[in-house]
Amino acid sequence: MTTETVRSDHHHHHLAISTLVSRFFRSLDVGKIDAAWAREYFTQDVRERTPIGDSEGRDAVLRHTVEALGRFARTQHMATDVVSEVAEGGAAAVVSWNALMTHVHHDGTAFTVGGHCRAELRRTPDGWRFRDTAVEVIWTQGKPPVGAGGQAE
């Protein structure tokens, strides 16, 4: 394999991974969050760690996402500065990005979160999928949502 081929493969994978991150964040705001959505973004054995809870398995991540987004009238998720590193052989990768996540409560007030996201990916026959994801909150502004127990989450 030539150096040029390796470089080309790296750019191809980085573009595919960056596109996955962008499409995923956009889907949280405008997509239909259902089983087809979950298959498009996650491996069956995905693990997700977020400020409002952890989930294991694609079905659990789907339920968690529907519940989390349902707390808000609308959202806007933005991802920037995507950095990916593909393992030799191209079957796995790690990716990180900066995130700005704005959530509008049903009363019209906003709750904004700035943070870092990190993920492990697996390349499947259908393309790259998230295998393990984590959100690290750096800052917040506004009132967080209230959970079922009446406590801010």
From TrEMBL:
It comes from the Bacteria. Residues 14-132 form the SnoaL-like domain. InterPro entries: NTF2-like_dom_sf, SnoaL-like. Pfam families: SnoaL_4. Signal peptide: none annotated. This is SnoaL-like domain-containing protein.
